[in-house]
Every structure is written in C-alpha cells, then in structure tokens.
Amino acid sequence: MRPAGGGEVVGVITESEIRRAPKVLLHDHLDGGLRPESIVELADATGYGGLPTTDVDKLRTWFRGGAHTGSLVRYLETFSHTVGVMQTADALARVARECAEDLAADGVVYAEVRFAPELHVGQGLSLDDVVEAVLDGFRAGSAGTGLHIRALLTAMRHQARSLEIAELAVRWREAGVVGFDIAGAEAGNPPTRHLDAFQYMQRANGHFTIHAGEAFGLPSIWEALQWCNADRLGHGVRIVDDITVDPDGNATLGDLASFVRDVRVPLEMCPSSNVHTGAAPSLDRHPIGLLRDLRFRVTVNTDNRLMSGVTLSSEFAALVETFGYGWPDISWLTINAMKSAFLPFDQRLMLINDVIKPGFDALTPPGAPGA
C-alpha cells in the first residue's frame, strides 16, 4: 500500500468516515444517477413501458450488469430507460431533487451535474422547459443541506444541436447553469465537429468541458484542447498514452502530456466507470495513480452512480484501498476539484477556506501525514 502524501500510513480510512468529508463532484450525469425505485414509479406514472423489469432489486442489478461490459457503446445503451422516464417536467424535477438529496447525504458540498436537454423533449417540452424543471429540482433537493449544486448542459456529439445547447447554457447561466459539455460515443464524432459551439462559448466568456480521452485516444484530447480550447477534460484517461515509465519508475512525458500538466488542465476522472467502459483495464492499473503521483490536476468523480453502483465516497474508499491514499490525498484531490469548478473565483475560495479545509482538518487525526 503506497503511503499517502509520501508519509507513513496511519490507520485505514473507512467509507463512512469519507462520507463525512466535504467533497466536490465535477462529473456526474443526471440520467446516470436515478434511484431504481424512482425509475419504476416514473415509468408507471408516465406510461413508459420499456423497462426490462419492474422489480426494483432486479432492475438495479440489470443496470449494473449492462454497464459493466468493458464497452462505452454498450454502457451508453442503458440510458435509453432512464431518459425514457425523464420526459415530463414533474419527472425531471423529481429526478433532480433526488439527485441533490443523494449527493448531500453523501457529504458532497459542491456539485456540477450534467444533462442533455435535447434528450428530454420527446413529449413536447421545450429546451428551456427542461432546464427550468431540473434547476427547480436542484433547488428543492439542496435546500438546507449545505450542498451547492449547479448544472452543465450537454450536447450529444453525434447530433447537430451543440450551438443551440451552448446558447441555452449562456441564457440560463444566471440561474444555475455554469457551463457546457459534449458527450456520447467519441469514435467518429471528434470535438471539432462542434467548433462553432465552443467558439460561441468563448465569445460569451463561458466555461466548457469536453468528454475526451475516454474511449478514444490522444487525438481526442489534442483536438479538445488545441482546437476547441476546453477548460477541462471529461475523463482524459488516455493522456497516459503520452507518458513512458521506465523499469526504474522514472516517467517521461510527451509534448501533449507535458502541456496538460504545465497548464493545469483539470482531468475529470471517474475510476469505476472508466473500468466498466474499458477506458482503464482495472482499478489498480487506472492511470489516476500515476497521474496523481506526477501531480497532474486530477479530480475524482462518479460519472453514473446508478450504472456503476457508486457514490463519491465509495470511489474515494476504493482509491484508499487500491493506492493507500490517506486524508492528505483525499483533501488534495478535493481541492483540485474545487479549484477547477466553473463557479466564480470568490465562491470557490470561500468553499475551500471556509468549508473544505476546516472539514478535512476536523477529520485528520493527530499524527497523520499532513496533519
């Protein structure tokens, strides 16, 4: 077990302890985090008849089994059912409210949750109706919890509505939308197809992240950064392909990897999901270990809590078990995420200084590394 923060490991941090820590989540899909019981109830309420089963426990197992295939394409197929029950304003508001409740219960103090408005207009909602319903749900679910939750609007990379969704993100940015994203199968759908949307966001002084380097390799990352000027990379796992480690453990960075580290490009890594989609071979061989050691701007995220069967706390607990991380590592990764959020600077600073650092100080036992 690798010593956390370069010092001696003191005790083993449990998932219940991590749940009490103030955490930050930058990469979480609204349609990938539904409660199974809510899916069944919403299917009944909305008349959606496509579920593989209406038994809640069997449905939970079905989602996880369907996602753990090692294929991003197969992984994405499970979303037809969650999206299928999210076609009314009431359903969207409920899912968003429950998302906020679940994140708050997991100790998340800041979250950016993304969704694709264009996927929720099948029963007559407008794009603005979709955004309004989700933001209403976020407000209701986070009220009184200490969770600050914001939205990222996602465009599907295989469709042609990205500029429209970027304009939507700017239109709602004073009401809780903090950025723009593209998602979907990477192969055959390079980010440069959506260059007009990214250029619009830049002209509007907006923020955006791009799913890149998950199922596709270095060209996807290079395009996202050098053509599209992404603020962050969704996943970015394949940046490890530009790093060579010799038998003595010495790492040599290629030009792209050096650029990513030098300019502190945030990497929105989702360890369990990356294994489930085949982006990483296993958790113990996930690039996050090497990238954290090399001090890339790594962040830890959930991606799809339903499909991967995770929470942010369980993701950190898995890293503790796999890489021997301690409180200094968890704190470092959390502050990385808060620094990289699309929230205004003064609000980021307030959460770091008034919430995150004091929260970790209270959890770090005397004598622990970094205490």
UniProtKB/TrEMBL annotation:
Q: Which cofactor does it need?
A: Zn(2+)
Where does this protein hold Zn(2+)? Answer: 27, 29, 211, 303
EC annotation from Swiss-Prot or TrEMBL: 3.5.4.4
- According to UniProt, the name of this protein is Adenosine deaminase
Q: Where is this site: Important for catalytic activity?
A: 235
Q: Which residues form the active site?
A: 214 (proton donor)
The Adenosine deaminase domain is annotated at 22-357
InterPro entries to which the protein is assigned, alphabetical: A_deaminase, A_deaminase_dom, Ado/ade_deaminase, Metal_Hydrolase
**Does the keyword section mention Zinc?**
yes
Q: Its GO CC terms?
A: cytosol
Q: Which EC class heads this enzyme's classification? A: hydrolase
Gene that produces this protein: add
* Biological role stated in the UniProt entry: Catalyzes the hydrolytic deamination of adenosine and 2-deoxyadenosine.
